[in-house]
Amino acid sequence: MRGTVRGGRTGLRAAAGALGALSLAMATIGTAQAADNPVGDNTQEVPVVPADNGSQQDVNQPMLSQSAPAAADPMLGAPGAVAEFGDPTGMQATLTRQELLRQKVAQIRQRIVALAKAQVGDTYSAGGSGPERFDCSGLALYVYKEAADHNLPHYSRSQYKVAKKIPKALAKPGDLVFYLSRGAHHVGVYIGNNRMVHAVGRGKGVRLTKISGPWYSYHFTGIGRILPDA
C-alpha cells in the first residue's frame, strides 16, 4: 500500500514538472512574439503618412481632435476671420463670426435703403432695371445687385418665390414688400417705418410711400427677406 502511494506521488511530481516546463516554454514564445509585434498579434502594421506640414506623422499615435475646415462665408470672406477694434482703454475686443455677420448684414441693409431712396423720381419703364428707368421688380433687382452683389430674378412673382416669408411686424429695412395674388404683380423695397420705395407705374415713376393704405392694405401679400437673418 505504501509503495502504491509513493508511486502515485512520484507520478504527480513528474506531471507538475512537465506542466511547469510547458508554461515556461509558452511564456518564452509569447515574449519573443511581443518583441516582434509590440501591440499584439491582431494589429497590422500601419504605414507612416505625411502630415499637412510636410513632416512624417505615425498614424498609430493618437491624433488630436480636428474639425473639418469651415467653408468660406460669401459675406465674411475667409473662414474663421475675426475683427478687432480699439476701445477707450486700449484693449482689443474680438468679434465672433455671428457678430461679424450681423454687422455686415446691417451695413448691406443701409446701402440697399440708401440706393433705393436715391432712385426716387426716376422714370417707370416696363422691363427697366436701371440705372434711371425701372419697373417694380427691376428696381428691387437693381438695388440688390448694386448694394448687396446679389442677383434677383426680374419678375415680382419669381422674387417672391426665392424670398423667405417674414411676418409684417418683423420687417427690416432692405426686405421686400409684395402685393397682389401670391406676390405676382408688384414689389417694393422696404426702408423702415412702414415705408417703401417702389416703381409705382407708368406716368408715376419711382416713389417713396407707405406700405399700407386703401389700395396697398387690400392687396398686401407679405414681406419677403433675401438677406440672412442676423
Gross CATH architecture of the domain at 97-225:
Alpha-Beta Complex
Helicity level: 25-40%
Question: What is the top-level CATH class of the domain at 97-225?
Answer: Alpha Beta
Tell the overall outline: globular
Work out the strand percent.
Answer: 15-25%
Quickly count the helices: 5
Average predicted local confidence, pLDDT: 73
What is the tally of beta strands?
12
Distance between the termini: 101 Å
Strand line-up in the sheet with most strands: 7-12-8-9-10-11
Structural class: alpha+beta
Here the CATH topology of the domain at 97-225 equals endopeptidase fold (from Nostoc punctiforme)
Q: Would you give an account of this structure?
A:
There is one protein chain. Helix 2 (about 95-120) packs across helix 3. About 35% of the residues lie in helices and about 20% in strands. It has about 230 residues and is an alpha+beta fold. The N and C termini lie far apart (about 100 Å).
Q: Helices and strands in order, then pairings?
A:
Elements: H1 2-36, E1 48-50, E2 56-58, E3 84-86, E4 92-94, H2 97-118, E5 123-124, E6 133-134, H3 136-148, H4 156-162, E7 164-166, E8 176-179, E9 186-192, E10 195-201, E11 205-210, H5 214-219, E12 220-225
